[in-house]
Every structure is written in structure tokens, then in C-alpha cells.
Write a structure and sequence with these properties.
8% of the residues lie in helices and 43% in strands. It contains four helices and 29 strands. The chain has helices at 149-155, 160-164, 188-195, 202-217; strands at residues 2-4, 9-12, 16-22, 26-32, 44-45, 57-63, 66-72, 82-88, 100-104, 110-115, 124-133, 136-146, 245-250, 253-256, 264-272, 278-283, 289-296, 302-309, 316-320, 324-330, 336-337, 342-345, 348-352, 357-364, 368-375, 388-394, 397-403, 408-413, 417-424.
Amino acid sequence: MTDLLKGANSFVPSVPLRVGVMQGLNASVLLVTAQGRVRGGADLVFQGQPGHPSGAVRHLGPHDGADWLQVDLPAVEAGVDRIVIAASSGGGPLGTAAPTVAAFAPDGTMVVRYALIDATTETACVLGEFYRRAGGWKFRAVGQGWDDGLAGLAADHGLEAARTGAPPPVPAPIPPQPFPRSAAPVAPAFAALLRHPAKTGYEAAAAQVQQVQQLRSGPPVPPAPAPAAPTAPGGWDFGAEFQPYAVQERGSQVVTVPSNVPPGPVIVEFETSGDDYICVYTLDDRNKDADLLVNTTLRDPRHRALAVAPEGRRLRIRVSCERRWTLKVLPLSAAALLDGPLEGRGDDVVRYTGPLADLVFRAKTDSNVTVYGYEVGDGGTELPENDILLVNEIGKVRSSSPMPPGPLLLKLSADGTWTMRARPV
């Protein structure tokens, strides 16, 4: 679980999510464009209009201490840039409630949480928003309040009729979908964790990760309300879904990843500020350096690398860095999706699910640049032994390489900026 402070953000799996708004508040959603405004009345989803015409967002209603939403990230229309999660009280101030939002993956694991702890007289707020980034989705903790309730919040996102009281023009409403009775409720222990006010500072993440680990090591916890089976974007079903793990430290450290990360390939994300010589290795069963994940002097780096969580023991990682840093272990579904022009900086992991194509690649760096491809097939949890070398250049790179059809996993190494796209053949 990633527990966020106001203004922070985190990648989330690009899968259907169940989103709960705690503390007895009413949940609502606005689907907005890149200009931050709805396209019409249908882009507001709440109790009185419980379904979006696209089917991507539904208001499921109250259940087990939360007001629940279904947010199907792969089904969100291309014209929607952000999915705004709002909470309203119906009149009373939010300052007495400490509004909390949490999102759950299809297997019931909590992937992100945010608690607004500094609300005062506001009666509605934007708790957070899902937004597109690098072909995937991130969640940002917003925590902005409105004294004039949901009507004022909706008006400031383009529904001016909401503030005047005039009904916005909307299509025929979608019949409400009752909360699935077959779905297991949120376990009481997790409900208590959600309702607990968030701490501040770096201690918050460590304390809450420890709480989750203690819960996971006890009796089996019923999953959060979720669909019967995960649906990954673009037909992607390679690699297991799991609760992302994050740790923040300073200096050279050894990290032992929790046992809830299953064996198989995962994404390791490393981020820090400033410039420093940084090395990140996995450790083998003799506690010696195994695979080199990060080796950079890039300023303010954010690198992603492929690692393999071993069978029968926990994944262990050694970090050599003098500054404060953040390390995350993510499922493969968190990788950016190559479904159009993609740009980045530093090492990365990318998913491709399209047809036969040429990889058009550009980079600007003073060092070696490589891109390897893995034909992962449908399903499974093991990387193939044979990789495909697509790019191997030094300095300024302008290349195109033949690429097999997806599903394909691309591993990119570059100490600089880059762009890529798949050119159909």
C-alpha cells in the first residue's frame, strides 16, 4: 500500500479498481478533460446519477462503512484526462470527519490511501484524482475543499448549472447497480486502518506498511469488494497483481521486500533528488550482489528496472546512495503502455500489446542506450530466457527496429531523455 501525503502521487495498476470513501461521507466522481472541466452533465457520477454512459465509472453505494465506487481504468474514454474523486457531507463541516479515500486492486489489496487531516469548515472536497501519465495511471492526493458543497465543487469543474440549482442536461440515467452481494466486505481490520487518521512525515509510510504486514501475516483477510477476475489493460495478463511496496530511506541500505510480493518478474522503481553515483542490486541466496538494477549519475533520477522475486525467499535489494531516496516494488501492470508516442527520462519498463510493428526510438545521452524485448505470451509469471535486442547505441540515437507483436515487455536503459513509438507495418 502507498499511503500519500497531500500533494504526493503514485502510480497505480491500470486495472478496474474499487474506491471507497470513508467516514460516512458521500462519494462522487467527475470525469474531466485536460482543461479540468467536464464535457457535460453525464460526466458527474454520484448517488442520483450512478453510472457513466461509458461504463467506466459507477457509484455502487454504501457498504461496510464506506461509500463505494467502481473505476474501470482500462475503459476510460480517450477524451478523459483525469478522474476526480470527491466527497461531500450533506451540510456539516468536513473538519470533524477526517475524510479518507482508498483504492483496491481486483484481488482485494489496497494500492493507495489518503486521509485529509486539515479540513475545517468545508462541506465538500476533492480527495484525489486518477490521471494519465506515461501510458498508465497515477493517483494524486489533492485535499482541496469547498464551503458551498458538491454544487460549488461541480460548478468549478464546468457544471455551472449545479451552483444555480438548474438541472444539468444529461442523457437517460443508467439504472443503479446494487453492491454485489457475492463480494466479500472489507475486513474489519482494514476498515479500522482506513479510518485511522494519517500521520505526517516519512514515519507515516513506515508505520502504515508495518500495519499492513501485520494484518497480512495473521489469519486470512477477506478481500475488498472486487470483480470476480482481474481485467488488465489491452489484454495484458502477464505477471501477478499484488499490493505495491514502498520504502523511504537515506544512505546505503539493504531492503527486504515483504512476503506478499509473489515470485516472478516485478518492477523496481528508484527515485531520489540531486546528483550522486547510485547503484541498486538484487541480492542472491548467499547475500551477494546479483542483478544490477540501477547504475547512474543522472541528476534527479527516477529509474525503473525489471527484477525477479525469487521462489522460496523474499526479494532483497541493496541500495548505494548518499541521499534520501524512495524505492517501490510494483506489478508489471504498472508499466507504461506503448499505445502511442511515449517519452521519458532514465531507465524504464514498457508494455506493448499491439500488432507487428517497428520500434521508432530517439534518445539524447552521452552513454550507452539499450532496449531489450521479452515475448511474454498470454499469462504466466516467468520471463523468457531469450530476449530480443532492439536498440544498442551510444550518444544521440535515431533508430527503428523490427519488433514482434505483443504482448511484449520492453526493458529500456538510458541515462537521458528518450521517445518511442510503435510504427505499424
